Amino acid sequence: MTTLDLELLRTFIAVVDHHSFAGAGTHLARTQSSVTQHMQRLEQQVGVSLFEKRGRQKQLTEPGLQLLRHARQMLSLNDDALNSLRESSLSGVLRIGSPHDIADTILPPILSHIARSAPRLRLEIDVGRSPFLMDDLHRGKVDMVISTRSDPNLEGFALRTSPVWWICSAQYIHQPSEPLPLILVDEPSIYRRYALEALERANIPWRQAYLASNLIGIKAATRAGLGVTPRSMEMLGPDMRVLGETDGLPRMPEVTYYLWIRPNTANPIARKAYDLIRGSQGL
After folding, report:
1. Which of 9, 64, 155, 271 satisfies CB 3.0 to 4.6 Å to 60 for a cystine?
2. CATH code for position 262
């Protein structure tokens, strides 16, 4: 009987989580051709096609979806077994900063992994806006931060790359002939910058329909149908929908969420936890 290669499964999961072979290569620090070779070898091992082309995108086949569920379970068991031997004695306080938009998506699996691997570790979570959390990290108020921002003075790695979409209420009626009503967060904001630059390049008029200081206000205004907001896919809820090129709106760049720590962190637990999370990502 064939034994599945865990390294190939890690690459497979990275392709799915980062929505492309190129995104997986960036996350795993591999070339795109290396990712392609991994997927070809994995398909040879399982004897079925894992991806199929739909338009410009590659999507999982039904066997691919089945393998994805098993792959996540297998890697989780593998990592748990190793980490339980290495990290079970880790104890103390770890302070993590996270932006609002990933508190329901990227953050929970990370917290779950830490809790399983280091059950004696006490977690303190600070949910806020990325620029202010990065400032807190520099000042030592938190030990690590998840953020879309880059900082050459910090040490970090990519957790996930997500598309940025024009998100609105499911009941919102788009009027292409009128200035686009934008729901924006105040500065500084990468999503605000991406949206305004994209609209300017496309010569699309817009107006500020609502200004908020946090994601709670953005979500409320979006659900109320006040306009359209530029956010990553992490914000999309069941009562929302996405506008795109077929609606006359331009594409925006993707965002990458990174995990950051200070290279000279004074908290030894932060370094061990950082390495633990990095190992769980296959890096």
Report:
1. 64
2. 3.40.190.10
Name the token pair of 5.
Answer: 């290669």
Question: What is the number of domains present in the chain?
Answer: 3
Pairing of strands 206-212, 240-243: unpaired
pLDDT digits (tens, 9 = 90+) for 50-66: 988 877 777 888 988 99
Residues 77 and 111 grouped into a single domain: no
Same domain for 29 and 12: yes
Query: pLDDT tier at 1 (50, 70, 90 boundaries)?
Result: low
Cβ atoms within 10 A of the Cβ of 261, count? 22
Q: pLDDT tens, 119-164?
A: 888 899 999 888 899 999 999 999 999 999 989 999 999 998 899 9
Please check whether residue 63 lies inside any domain of the structure: yes
Is there a domain that residue 262 lies in?
yes
Q: Please indicate, yes or no, if residue 70 is contained in any of the structural domains.
A: yes
Domain carrying residue 202:
164-253
Q: Does residue 75 sit in the same domain as residue 99?
A: no
pTM for the predicted model, two decimal places: 0.65
